[in-house]
Amino acid sequence: PYTIEGVGKSSTALPRIVSLVPSATCILYELGATKCLVGVTRWCRYVMPPSGAVNRPILGDCWHADVAQIAALRPDLVIGGVPYGPEVVKGLLARGIRLRSDYVTLD
């Protein structure tokens, strides 16, 4: 089981994670959590073996993510790491999609 912090959502199913930054994808791969990945960027295929990244929807690159396509995947969590444009951040948050980023300000 897992619980997503701050949401109170608990489930025995695997969490659905979208990674919008290759370093996060690499970490998830090294942790053996690629089964949780439901979408990645076009750059993520360079940090995972071909069988891992190729089978995931490509949601854009590290600077331009397709918010509608991300929302359609129904992720429990989106991991980012670069300063996306405000329209991406606002689009994800407006749809109630949980976003984690190592970027300090999202304005």
> Which overall shape is indicated by the principal axes computed on the Cα atoms?
globular
Q: Give, in spatial order, the strands making up the sheet with the most strands.
A: 4-3-5-6
Average pLDDT, to the nearest integer?
A: 79
What's the total count of β strands? 6
Main sheet record: 4 strands, parallel
- Gyration radius over CA: 13 Å
The number of distinct helices, counting runs of at least 4 residues, comes to 4
Relative strand content? 15-25%
State the order of secondary-structure elements, H for helix, E for strand: EEEHEHHEHE
Structural class computed from helices and strand pairing = alpha/beta
List the helices and strands and how they pair.
Blueprint: E1 2-4, E2 9-11, E3 17-19, H1 22-30, E4 37-39, H2 50-53, H3 67-72, E5 77-80, H4 86-94, E6 99-101
Q: What does this 3D model show about the protein?
A:
The structure is a single chain. The chain has 107 residues and is an alpha/beta fold. 26% of the residues lie in helices and 18% in strands. The protein is built from 4 helices and 6 strands, in the order E-E-E-H-E-H-H-E-H-E. The protein has helices spanning 22-30, 50-53, 67-72, 86-94; strands at residues 2-4, 9-11, 17-19, 37-39, 77-80, 99-101. The strands form 2 sheets. The chain has a 4-stranded parallel beta sheet, sandwiched between helices. A two-stranded antiparallel sheet has the order 1-2. Strand 5 (77-80), helix 4 and strand 6 form a beta-alpha-beta unit. The radius of gyration is 13 Å and the shape is globular. The N and C termini lie far apart (34 Å). 29% of the residues are buried. The model has no long low-confidence stretch (mean pLDDT 79).
